[in-house]
Amino acid sequence: MAIKTAVSRLSLFPITAEVNKQGHLVIGGGDTVALAAEFGTPLYVFDEASLRAQCAEFKMEFGQRYTEISVVYAGKAFLNKALALILKEEGLGLDVVSGGEMSIARAIDFPFDKVYFHGNNKSAEELNMALEWRVGRIVIDNFEELTRLSERAREKGRVPDILLRLTPGIDPHTHKYISTGVVDSKFGFTLATWEEVVAQVISAPDLNLVGLGFHLGSLIFEIEPYREAIGRVLDFAAEMKRKHGFEMQELDIGGGFAVQYTLDAPTPPISSYAEVIATTINDKCQELKLALPRLVVEPGRAIVGRAGVVLYRIGAAKEIPGVRRYVFVDGGMADNIRPALYAARYEAVVANKMLLEETGKVTIAGKFCESGDILISDISLPPVTAGDILAMADCGAYCLAMASNYNASLKSAVVLVKDDKARLIRRRETFEDLGRCDVV
Ligand code: LLP
Predict the structure, then answer these.
(1) What is the extent of the structural domain holding 353?
(2) Is residue 1 part of a domain?
(3) Pick from 304, 332, 347: which residue ends a domain?
(4) Which of 3, 187, 257, 373 is packed most tightly, with the most Cβ within 10 A?
């Protein structure tokens, strides 16, 4: 029988992942063990080829099935200047939810006509920024925001292009914390108020209603919820056309496309989501005699998830006889809160022992002062010792973006690898950085 090694998990890593002669994990031509030595750990490594391939796949799979599409990357998954530049080069749009994300886009001169501004409680300052910097679309989440934006637009003599975020009341069967399209959600307009808001906006001279949108949630493995939600929103658009003369030019179906984190949880390919989504819109619009709207998709996780790998250095271990063996790494819940927050599951490999046989199960725990700081429970690994490098797959999305300075830890460095070259795209924080905002 063949021995079981980490090679079986390579498919979860970036597309350039391979194993070199020393039995080390290589990404983008870079030996991860050497990267950890050069840049320190924890280290987030992004593979540029994987990032660009995902951008291209979304454009291709949706583009070949539907007339007009915009792929708008959801910056909340991870945003930084170097990444924003890649997205700009790939021609993607950007979904932002804060003045901070807008300012990162601004810093690299991202084309603002491709920026979509979401959020359920945009501040006055943020609305002003959006108007001044002329974001492409402001996605209105509730009635109060509508009034606030109208007032500001009037003051500034602008007529912003807006979308309305509708809550279609559909359960995408994902974790409760990342399910957003259900009736009891803080986001968007409740079904009972859809007509009222459309009627109100259509008659508002300060706002230009371009279309409608929804976002069902994140990490959605099923495709059917998209079909159902699109059907519901298009039926509504047809009704609003009849009653109020509303012409929907754009339909934003949000993000949520799943990523495979573990070998036992495969996802549908992007082509399957694209097929159902495009077919539903094409058929339904024909049936309802609606002009085909521009289709906006907002993938976050599916663009950056698999492109990112985190490297930790293994330190101490603790054996509890008959119970479990804990292996500790030099990061944890401060750089990846997802296991603690959503019971998220990950796979990992020992980057310097890729060809060694897996001999037993261990539990990977972080270094932070909480018992919940467990990254992976019961994973089969080869024997590990202090100094080994643990590489966790699929850490590109919602890890760095949700990182904290818990225990006054320093946020990780980030490198981008491509064609055997590694480039630092975010330096590691220092103790000086930690104290920078304190006032004594
Ligand atoms: N569009 C809107 C309006 C969104 O709210 C989101 C994500 C996306 C697009 C992108 O969704 P994605 O394609 O990445 O699934 N922190 C959670 C995920 C929160 C997602 C919030 N909204 C996690 O770590 O699983």
Answers:
(1) 6-40+309-434
(2) no
(3) 304
(4) 257
Q: Ligand 1 centre from 257 Cα, in Å?
A: 9
Ligand 1 in reach of 137 Cβ (< 6 A): no
3 state SS of 150:
helix
CA dist., res. 402 & res. 301, Å (int):
13
Quote the ligand 1 centre to 386 CA distance (angstroms): 36
Which residues are designated catalytic? 369
Cα 216 to middle of ligand 1, angstroms? 9
Structure tokens, 25: 């994990």
How far CA 132 is from CA of 64, 125, 147, 153, 157, in Å, comes to 35, 10, 18, 10, 11
Q: How many residues can be counted in the chain?
A: 440
251 CB near ligand 1 (under 6 Å): no
The pLDDT of residue 33 is above 70? yes
Locate the ligand 1 atom nearest the alpha carbon of residue 342 and give its number: 25
Q: Per-residue pLDDT tens for 79-93?
A: 999 999 999 999 999
Residue 178 CB–ligand 1 contact under 6 Å: yes
- Ligand 1 pocket, 395 CB below 6 A? no
Shared-domain flag, residues 112 and 174:
yes
| Pocket lining: 95 vs ligand 1, CB cutoff 6 Å | yes
CA of 178 to the centre of ligand 1 (A): 7
Among left, alpha and beta (phi > 0; psi -120 to 50; other), residue 134 is left
The pLDDT tens digits for 133-187 are 999 999 999 999 999 999 999 999 999 999 999 999 998 887 777 777 777 889 9
* 10 DSSP 8-state letter: G
- List the structure tokens of 350: 């020992």
CATH number, domain of 236, equals 3.20.20.10
CA angle 142, 143, 145 (to 5 degrees): 70
Nearest CA owner, ligand 1 atom 1: 254
Question: C-alpha 77: how far from its chain's center?
Answer: 3
Give the mean pLDDT of the chain.
Answer: 96
